[in-house]
Design brief:
By secondary structure, this protein is an alpha+beta fold. The chain has nine helices and 14 strands. It has a single domain (7-324), classed as q2cbj1_9rhob like domain (Jelly Rolls). Strands 1, 2, 3, 5, 8, 10, 13 and 14 form an eight-stranded antiparallel β-sheet that branches. Strands 4-9-6-7 form a four-stranded antiparallel β-sheet. The structure holds fe (ii) ion (FE2). Residues 141, 143, 266, 270 line the site of fe (ii) ion. One of its GO terms (molecular function) is 2-oxoglutarate-dependent dioxygenase activity. Keywords: Plasmid.
């Protein structure tokens, strides 16, 4: 994240786990977001969609029953994973993409880019999570780097917007283990992907970039089973168990008020406290962003059938550019990319 945040804010992020922005999204927009998602069916849960290509294998295998999960038939596994995540959230909605542009436009007007050093940010997709007080919160985990669905990386920026107050009284606070304590490395996955797919014409687009949509199920499955990838999963599983065993008392909690924007990185270990308030639910809205790396991998443009990765923030000019396809990273000058 050193190449992402300006030095002053990097220090805050590195030692505390968060960057406090003191930027508040207008309550009119917050209320509109709440109304939109509250109208969606109770129990809407997009997590099982990620099970198809095993993103959450590492997360699952960190759980006691993890290994058994990966041996179940897919339909049974989907049901099980739904039950697993239903214990934390009553709705989990990914990639709705309805409010991202408006939220980012408002944040840009509020000088939100003052935190960033990296010249470009891709605004990838959004997430809405809600739960009532009868659920246990989310335990210590990381959202592991992957490329099957999102192309998530080590230095992702999570724009975290509580839609209600998260504090001692209400509960629901997010907690993060600062990067200075323990870090999960992730960009090595991009190097592995380059090694596995970069040399063969059949996986490349017209610019010579690896096109994830050209990688067929068999090739992907072979990559997942390969020794390098399995070593990475093993490594990630080990680091997660260390976080749980040695660092549970060193997570930073933070009180947040409705609409107040927090920056952090979901690749760091985090957890969500149980919600206590009975009269209304915990609700958070998240926008996931990432820098542009000097890796020759094309961005995907569909997540669960919806266009994503199509908003680009120009940090120097403070402008937001929208495309009708994914951001074409081959057009970005090499000097403006973050080295993996
Ligand atoms: Fe998470």
């Amino acid at each position: 994240m050193y190449n992402i945040f300006k030095d002053k804010y990097f220090k805050e992020y590195y030692s505390n786990g968060f960057v406090e922005t003191d930027t508040v999204l207008s309550h009119d927009l917050v209320d509109e977001i709440r109304a939109h998602y509250q109208a969606k069916a109770e129990g809407h849960n997009d997590f099982p969609k990620f099970f198809v290509n095993n993103e959450h294998q590492i997360y699952l295998e960190g759980e006691e029953s993890g290994r058994a999960f990966s041996k179940l038939p897919k339909s049974v596994a989907h049901q099980k994973i739904r039950e697993l995540y239903d214990t934390s959230y009553s709705k989990a909605v990914y990639c709705e993409q309805v409010f991202m542009e408006r939220v980012m436009t408002e944040l840009l007007e509020k000088d939100f880019l003052r935190f960033f050093k990296t010249p470009y940010l891709i605004v990838s997709y959004d997430i809405y999570l809600t739960n009532d007080c009868n659920r246990p919160g989310a335990g210590i985990h990381t959202d592991p780097p992957n490329f099957h669905h999102f192309y998530e990386t080590e230095n992702d920026v999570t724009i975290y917007i509580p839609l209600v107050d998260l504090n001692d009284k209400n509960g629901g606070r997010i907690s993060v283990l600062p990067e200075s304590k323990l870090k999960l490395s992730g960009n090595v996955l991009l190097k592995m992907m380059e090694e596995a797919f970069g040399g063969e014409q059949q996986w490349l687009d017209e610019n010579g970039y690896i096109d994830p949509d050209k990688i067929d199920d068999k090739a992907l499955s072979d990559f997942i089973k390969s020794r390098p990838y399995q070593r990475l999963i093993e490594h990630q599983r080990n680091v997660i168990s260390m976080a749980r065993q040695y660092y549970t008392d060193e997570f930073t909690y933070i009180n947040e008020s409705k609409g107040r924007v927090l920056l952090w990185n979901n690749k760091n270990f985090h957890a969500a406290e149980a919600w206590k308030e009975k009269s209304f639910n915990r609700e958070v809205y998240i926008i996931r962003c990432m820098p542009i790396y000097n890796t020759k991998i094309k961005l995907k443009n569909k997540l669960h059938g919806k266009l994503f990765n199509n908003l680009l923030v120009h940090v120097k000019t403070g402008t937001l550019e929208k495309f009708d396809r994914e951001v074409d990273v081959s057009q970005i000058p090499e000097m403006d990319k973050v080295a993996i």
